[in-house]
Each structure stands twice: as structure tokens, then as C-alpha cells.
Amino acid sequence: xxPLRDNISSRTFPVINYAMIALCTLCFFAxxxxxxxxxxxxxEKYGMIPARIGHPDAEIAIPVERPQWSPGNVVAPGGFVLAxxxxxxxxxxxxxxxxxxxGWGHFLGNMWFLHIFGDNxxxxxxxxxxxxxxxLAGVAASLGHYLAAxxxxxxxxxxxxxxxxxxxxxxxxxxxxxxxxxxxxxxxTQIVAIPAPIFLGIWFVIQLLSGTAGSSEGVAWWAHxxxxxxxxxxxxxxxxxxxxxxxxxxxxxxxxxxxxxRILDR
Length: 266
Hints:
There is one protein chain. By secondary structure, the protein is mainly alpha-helical. It has one domain (2-265): Rhomboid-like fold (Up-down Bundle), CATH 1.20.1540.10. The chain is 55% helix and 11% strand. It contains 11 helices and 6 strands. It has helices at residues 15-33, 37-46, 50-54, 93-96, 104-125, 127-148, 160-173, 196-212, 221-241, 250-253, 259-265; strands at 2-6, 61-63, 75-76, 80-82, 178-185, 188-195. It has a 3-stranded antiparallel sheet. α1 packs antiparallel against α5 (104-125) and α8 (196-212) packs across α9. The two termini are 23 Å apart.
């Protein structure tokens, strides 16, 4: 399912959400500008390597993906290279990793989900609150992956854990929202309005099943799980204590969940 939009408009301009998208975009294009092995070294420095968090002074060997004969590589026995060290304490890579991406699909998918769900969460938490929440969700997601793969030497990058936190918060704060979703059916596609808790619940179950099954598809499933649980938990506490901005009664404005989509389609 690909989300196209939700049926709730934000009352405030989502300055922080757009700032996060802009920052991730800037970092991604900076990655693309680096040539050759420099791009791998950038990921090794600023990506989160679980083994390095627990052993900050140790040399970390990662599987060789770039040519062993390239200039500057230090090759360890058994087909590994020694990872480049970050210019700061490795614990800070729990945060820096969320601004890097592994390719166009990874980057565009993450930014689209953040665009769909982030503005409404910022609307309820306020600009400063949302900024703090987003950063903490990213760190919580990184910790989730760290705890699931303590000894891994593979760098982890991507904003999806922080965005999972945004999605978890959205599910709690907007339980009656609808998500317009594109569902591919072979050669045909269907646009369906799906209640947000169902859409996001299905997404979370997929992450949970993949994580508990030990799926190794190059995806940090437990970062997604950790971020989502963190976001839902924080939103629940904020909602319970009345610390969020009041929710707009969108039912009066959008009785038909497809209304805004149809207007944009004209």
C-alpha cells in the first residue's frame, strides 16, 4: 500500500517537518556528490555501527563490498575492511545515521511518508515539541536496532526509524483519520480510503513479523519497531495529560474521505 494523502489538513505551517525533509535532502545530495570509496567511508563514519557503540575504541571490521584493491583501504583477514572512525564519540552516530540514505528509493520513500504524516503530528505537538520528539524518536529507533544487533559490524542509516515514530504518534493522535492508499493489483491499481489505525497497524505488524523472524533483507526492522513504539507511547502520554494542541474537528470539513483527493485531481 502506498499512501497518497490523509484527509486532515494542518492548521499551522509544518516548518519543522519541512526542515527535516530539507536537511535529509541536503545530506543525501552531499552523499551523491562524494565519489568512489569516499561514499562508503562517509557511511562508515556517520552511520550507526552497533559493535562500535559498545566498543568505541575497537577497530570494527565490516564485510567487503568495495574493491579490496582500491587506494586507502585497510583490509582485514577474511574479506573485511576496517571501518572508518567518526570524528566524534560513536554514541552520536545514533543520531547522525538518521540523516543518511542508501539510495533514491530509500530516500524518496522515507521523505514521502514523512510528508504525509509529519505535518499533522507537528500540528498537535507544536514546532519545538515536534523537533524534540523527532530527534528522540530517531535515537530511540537507533537504540532499538542496537539492542537487536549488538555485535553487528554493518553500518545502519536512514530516517525510517524516526519516521516510524511519527507514524506511531499519528496513529494515536488521529485514530479517526483516513489514508488514501494506492493498492497495486497486478496490472490494475485501486485507490482506497483506509482508516489510519488499520493502515499503520498493518505496516507495524509487517515490521514486527519481519523482525521476529530474523529476516535479513538489509532492513533494520527493529529500528522501525522501536521508533513506532516510542512514538505511539509518547503521543499516548501527551494526549493523556492534555499537553497536545486540540484536535481539529475535521469531520465537519471532510465528510467524504475522498473530497480533497477529488479536488486535487481536477
